[in-house]
Every structure is written in C-alpha cells, then in structure tokens.
Amino acid sequence: SQKIEQNSEALNIQEGKTATLTCNYTNYSPAYLQWYRQDPGRGPVFLLLIRENEKEKRKERLKVTFDTTLKQSLFHITASQPADSATYLCALERAGNMLTFGGGTRLMVKP
Amino acid sequence: DAGVIQSPRHEVTEMGQEVTLRCKPISGHDYLFWYRQTMMRGLELLIYFNNNVPIDDSGMPEDRFSAKMPNASFSTLKIQPSEPRDSAVYFCASSSGDRDDYGYTFGSGTRLTVV
C-alpha cells in the first residue's frame, strides 16, 4: 500500500541551528512533492514545490531535496528561529492534481 | 483576494443532526478540495472538484457525507445524520491546477464537534 512517513516525534533544536525534516514514501511515483507549514488552529500553508526532475530547490532559508531513487525528501531550515516552530507536512501529488499528506513533524526551535 | 473562506469556524451539534459546512474558493481556481484532519488519521482527502464537477469522491467515508459545488465560488459539505466519530477539523482548499509554485491554498477550517 502507499505510505508517506514523517517522523511523528517532535524535533527540538536550538535557535540558529539547521533543522532537517525527513519525508519517506513507498509505492508512489510522484511527479511533484510539496511541503507545507501548519500552525495550531490554522490550515496548512504552502512553502515549496519540487518536481521529480529537480534534485534541490531553495527559497530564502528553506531548502528541499528530492531523491526519487531513495524515495525521500529532506526539508531544511537554516538559521532557525523560534518563529519557525510549527508542524511541517510533506505531500505527494497523485494523478489529477490530488495531494496526499504525510502525518507531519512538529518542530520546536528554542531560543 | 481574501483567500479560501470557510464557515462556520466552529460547529457543535448533537448526534443525528444535519451539518452543512461551507467554502468559498479563491476566484479563478479551478480545483476545490475537501479534507478532514484528526489526530489519529491526519489529513485525509474526502472529495475534489474540477471546474465544479466532482472528480474523485473515493475518500468520502459513507453515504452520510455529500458534497456539492453549484458554481465556481461556492461549495458545501453535508453530513446527515452526524455521528460523534465525525468530529474533526474539516478543511477546504483550492488550487489553480497550474504546475507552478503556489500549491494549494487552505481555508482556516471548520472544527466540528458532534456530541
């Protein structure tokens, strides 16, 4: 069966460090992978999209990698800040523009 | 644009009652999605529309759930009769469908509690 796995344990890091979140998937051949941020009581907010033929994508302090051989995406936040504390969701696109989401990883950045 | 607008923000209802959730997508977006989020199951896709036409409703849990999109600016998700296990946060999202860098835009959600 198709699975998207994100670390369900919270990631705690110190302010200024780089946070790295992992998204692994099985039985998918996604053309696109997306990352979202979700704050408590709010809907997910789109951050980055990476295509299957792209190895890496950057946006300000964010970097996403996509390894279709390993079936894995890594999401990095450099120079992390307490304001980066949130739950981060990866999502894979199936046919017809449908997104399937992983369970999310909660990031806590301590000052 | 004010983004995706959902109403009500919170809904508390008794078991057996009908519940209607509403969504106004972003103008110009051709796709509309209904998701449900719970701690146990995360975000689950219930149904999605393209140009107001339902494309995939395989995620709708039972016949008690129905969704409509009578025009490009409005969609409803109805549960009749509601049950306690339907308690969750229901999100509506829309997208342009273009392979660009904007992804989905989600509403703020409706927190449904069925007692």
Give an overview in words.
The complex is a heterodimer of chains A (about 110) and B (about 120). The radius of gyration of chain A is 13 Å and the shape is globular. Chain A is about 0% helix and about 55% strand. Chain A is an all-beta fold and about 110 residues long. Chain A starts with a strand and ends with a strand. Chain B is mainly beta and about 120 residues long. Chain B has no helices and 11 strands. Chain B has strands at about 5, 10-15, 20-25, 30-40, 40-50, 55, 65-70, 75-80, 90-95, 105, 110-115. In chain B, the strands form 2 sheets. In chain B, strands 2, 4, 5, 6, 9, 10 and 11 form a 7-stranded mixed beta sheet that branches. Chain B is globular and about 40 Å long. The interface between A and B is medium-sized, with 23 and 26 residues.
Quickly describe the structure.
With 111 residues, chain A is mainly β. Chain A has strands at 3-6, 11-14, 19-26, 32-38, 45-51, 56-59, 62-67, 72-77, 86-93, 99-101, 105-110.
Key attributes of the depicted protein:
heterodimer; A: 111 residues; mainly beta; 6-stranded mixed sheet; 5-stranded antiparallel sheet; 11 strands; 0% helix; globular; B: 115 residues; 7-stranded mixed sheet; 4-stranded antiparallel sheet
Number of strands of chain A: 11
Overall mean pLDDT score of chain B? 94
Oligomer: heterodimer
User: Rounded to an integer, what's the Rg of chain B over CA atoms?
Assistant: 13 Å
**Chain pair sharing the greatest interface:** A-B, 23 and 26 residues
Helix content of chain A: under 10%
Rounded to the nearest angstrom, the radius of gyration of chain A is 13 Å
Mean pLDDT over the residues of chain A? 93
Order of helices and strands of chain A: EEEEEEEEEEE
Tally of helical runs of chain A:
0
- Low-pLDDT residue spans of chain B: none
What does the overall shape of chain B look like?
Answer: globular
Strand content bin of chain A: over 45%
